Amino acid sequence: MQDGFEMIAKIPYHIAQPSFYATASEAATLTFLQAQGISVPEVYSYSATANNPVGTEYILMAKAPGVSLASKWESLDDRDIKRIAKSFVELETKLFKLRFSTFGSLYFKTDIAPSSQVPLYAEENAIEADRFCIGPIADYMFWYGRRAGLHMNRGPWKKHVEYLQSIAKKEMGWTRLYGTAMEPDFPHNASGVGVQQPGDFLKFLESYQSLTPHLLPKSSAHPFNQPTLRHPDLTPGNIFITPETGQISCLIDWQHAIVQPQLLAAGYPRAFENPDDLLPPKLVIPKLPEHLSSLSPEEQTATRELHRQRLFFYTYRVLNGHFNQAHIEALRDPLLLGRQMLVDRAGRQWEGNFITLKGAVIRMAQFWEHLPDVQGIECPLRFDRFESEAFADIEDTWLKMSFTVEQWRQTVCGMSEEGWVRNEDYEESKQKLADLEEEIRLQCKGDEEDTRAFQTGWPFCDREEVY
Questions:
Q1: Cβ-count burial of 153 within 10 angstroms (0-12 exposed, 13-18 middle, 19+ buried)?
Q2: Model pTM?
């Protein structure tokens, strides 16, 4: 604008679901968080329906102050990293202390029918309780494609078991109606698994359902069951900082944010993930190697990048122990990742892969005695030892191939699983993808089976966007 005022108009992509709930929930979530002193864009106006002069849903919000962490990433020194991590953990600790009443997503009361809303807090708070509520979940996988037309329980849920079961029920309903026999994508289709049947996927979804009453502590008062709100996609591009101070100036992109059990919400955000395969045996502050100057320029760049990632991870971990005890307790749970992976896989769409879901189910059965409150209760699932051992080899091969695909995505400007890249990377990513496809094609050349698998299952081809 002529006076220098800047504003962001956020309009949902045409296949973004659920357009009403996603828009209404994000507007309410931002307004609520700002009232809690958490740095997010101020909402000036919004419309959760297309019944307006613009002809689409929209949110008008303040432009994020500061600069994105992604834009400063390569210039960060150790002091910057520590200040940014401390600022973020302090903000996140505020979220973990909020005592929401149940599971779902946040809304203004005026946007949700009384029959579909529950009070915001377990204990009434006069100010926020008058404006906000918990309503149906805005997670897009509950509305994606044809799911939007299916009758299912989308919350809010008062009991964590009901929430866990609804995650699988939506995929069971979709798969029974629309699931077809499929061969997995390349390179998995080169492993000899052949065409996969949706019935096998449904079988292991049913196995998951039998485990849901035992995945979390039975008491709703247990901290692991505390309804918790976290940022849904915390990448460096969604974190804005004040360069002079290292303080978090804004967290953007809260679309599809949900309130879920604390154990499922726990974890290291992508900006603070461990870059190594294993946790370090001792909590020792990372340092650059003394021989750094003797390395080649390329090796120095790679070494500095690894150091940045390790220091972010280390600092985030240490500061959670100091400021956010509830989160560190969840992070220390030995079955944290196993349970999170099981729930995640049960909520994914059938695309010719039941291997990862089966593996997650088998592991929970194997670690049954370590689940909470199962003393005297027999595991509802039984797997033959020889079958489990044979499957472990299949799963290991499958996971290695999945890791390869993830490496391919990273070479294509960090492409997401759904094929998204940053706007500014679009043209470059198209060229990198074309180069990658040609490279893999040449690698398969001369092997008839690999060539067929590549031609029929290349994972990055154009696809129909509605499922």
A1: middle
A2: 0.92
What is the number of alpha carbons within 13 Å of residue 149 lying toward its C-beta?
Answer: 6
pLDDT band at residue 466 using 50, 70 and 90 as cut-offs: very low
CA distance 48 to 46: 7
363-392: per-residue pLDDT in tens? 999 999 999 999 999 999 999 888 888 888
Q: State the angle between helix axes of 336-346 and 160-178 in degrees (0 to 180), rounded to the nearest 10.
A: 40
Question: Could you give the 3-state DSSP secondary structure of residue 385?
Answer: helix
Which residue, 195, 196, 191, is CA-closest to 397? 191
* Residue 228, strand partner residues: 260
Q: What is the rounded CA–CA span in Å between residue 328 and residue 324?
A: 6
What does the domain layout of the chain look like in residue ranges? Answer: 7-411
Q: Which residue has the tokens 């303080």?
A: 247
CB–CB of 306/178 below 8 Å? Answer: no
Q: Hey, what are 383's tokens?
A: 């797997």
Integer Cα distance of 88 and 92 in angstroms: 6
Distance (Å, rounded) from C-alpha 379 to C-alpha 364?
9
Strand (E) or helix (H) holding 8: strand 7-10
- Helix and strand element counts for the chain (H, E): 14, 11
Contact present, 303 and 289 (Cβ < 8 Å) = yes
Cis peptide, bond prior to residue 187, ω within 30 of zero: yes
For residue 111, name the pLDDT band (cuts at 50, 70, 90).
very high
Average pLDDT estimate for 297-302: 93
Packing angle, helices 160-178 and 198-215, rounded to 10: 180
Q: What is the pLDDT of residue 137?
A: 98
- Give the amino acid at 421: V
Note the helical H segments in 216-347. 262-265, 297-323, 325-331, 336-346
Residue 186: Cβ-neighbour burial (10 angstroms; 0-12, 13-18, 19+): buried
Single-letter residue type at 142:
F
User: d(Cα 254, Cα 258) in Å, to the nearest integer?
Assistant: 9
Query: Which residue(s) pair with 84 in the sheet?
Result: none
What is the length of the chain?
A: 467
Query: What DSSP designation does 425 have?
Result: G
